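Interim report to the steering committee. The following record documents the input for N-acetylglucosaminidase (259 residues).
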Amino acid sequence: MSRTFKKRFLIILISVIIAVFAILMIINETNLFKHDQTHTFDEAVQAQTGEGMLNTKEDNGRFVNASKEDVRRAMIIKKHNHNINYMDISEKVPMDKKEVNQILKGKGIFENKGSTFLKAQDQYGVNVLYLISHALIETGNGRSDLAKGIPYKGKHYYNFYGIGAFDENALKHGHSYAKQQKWTSPEKAIMGGASFVRKEYFDKEQLSLYQMRWNPKNPGQHQYASDIDWDTKIASVMDHYYQKYGIKKDHIRKNYYKQ
């Protein structure tokens, strides 16, 4: 057997092994997705709009109850949008401190906090552009009362992710949660918010904005917000930065429901 033939045979063999491995990975991933497809879309809408469920929408600067049709429209998987709603945001984005601080320039309490956002991404495995975009929306670009810090007994408490800020009295409840967690600096609030998202959502397999908002595996349960456009608002801000910095969107999933 000639050396050339052996070399070609080895290359072919390696190529076949890689191809088989890739096929097995695709099959395994498909089976995993099927495992968590617990409801049809219509069943999910029904569960999401059942008795006692709170779904709101923004109307002229205030939140009002959303109709069942509003909810259905918001839950529909869009085929031709920026896709970030359905992207795995539990993975890191390759950005440096200078780029992140450029994003945060003029953003109130967040200005020059790039190193903290990147530290939160590295420590907890939470997409830094998600962390920034979510914080900007929840805090009015870093200028809301919660963003500035609520004074209490000589200390200021910060909450940048609306955690515990229930809609009927968001400021009061959000402040209480920040006190409970001892978020007495912007840095603690950023790190604490990233830790919360990791433990309460990513570790429970809610890896995309869509899953965090609608929880298709268990509709109507364990959802981040009542605003039916919550995921789309954050995704829109993220998409702006993804385009600006030419970042590739990876691991997009849209098959959440049984057919």
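The chain has one domain: 41-244. The committee is asked to note this result when reviewing the revised timeline.
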